[in-house]
Task: structure prediction
Amino acid sequence: MEEDDPGQVSNIDGAPEDQEEDAQTPPVYRVYKRRWFGLMQLVLMNIIVSWDWLSYSPVANTAATYFSTTSSIINWLSTAFLFAFVVASPLTIYVLNTGGTRLALITSSLLILIGNWIRYAGTRASPPSFPVVMFGQILIGLAQPFVLSAPTHYSSLWFTPRGRVSATAIASLANPFGGALAQLINPFLASQPKEIHPMTLYIALVSSFATIPSLFIPSAPPTPVSASSSQNPPPLTETLRLLARNQNYILLLIPFATYVGLFNAISSLLTQILTPYNFSEEQSGIAGALLILIETLPPPHPPPRARHRALVPRFHLGPRHPRRRGPLPRVRDLGRGLLQPRARGAGVGG
Result:
């Protein structure tokens, strides 16, 4: 693939691309347009693997009829997927640190490809074989950590420090978007038990086409994109030791892990939760899609004036006084205003 034209600027990095190095001057770091191809493939793979995860949960009742079982058993497909994720996570760390993003994407693509067609074979059997479908689902679950963990490694190699956060966020947020697509589309693909088989076929075809570009992802850019990209990362054991001692990391890990667990549980069981209240699978799927999309959308940007002000209770120690009218105090003036001495007496005013 050809390199970029000199002088072009990326809308995320804001850095010059493909500048010529002079042997007599310090090295000039380059960024390459081909990095967008790898980023889009990470986005596509994250969408596909999350869609595969929730293939049957939005149609749990219909799938239960097709496989002659219960909706609770069908939801074990989603749960087994999550357990497989945990099992594959240590291997994912090793693959990313030794083989890089390319090997991780190829490994994930093979697992997704094989798992989808095994699931299709299970739905095509006569009678339909739920254990075969479960085996294919577990293989796809083993694939997810490879694509979910790859964006940070990829952005550190191909993007400058200015663009890494945006690149990582784009690829990572694609994962819940794939779950929203499954919630929204699958109930319309399989509104009757006999349509579970073609629904699985459609998902297998889409997943198969999505894995092909992974074969063409370069392992690393020809030259470093920044000084930090050319440095070797610290050993894995040292990194884990530092994280275990980092209190800020622990304080972020606990609430985030709790949130992810609740998110996965609600996404997997939403149809079964709403069925007793006479919600159809289509209605439950729309609710699930809205739930995921609203959670992933960024918050509205406050106006510049609102960023410097805060809504706080207007309590103070001192005599009552007429309610003041006007703008609220600035955040930096709150402490000084509350601690200033007032007239004699004590009271609570609003």
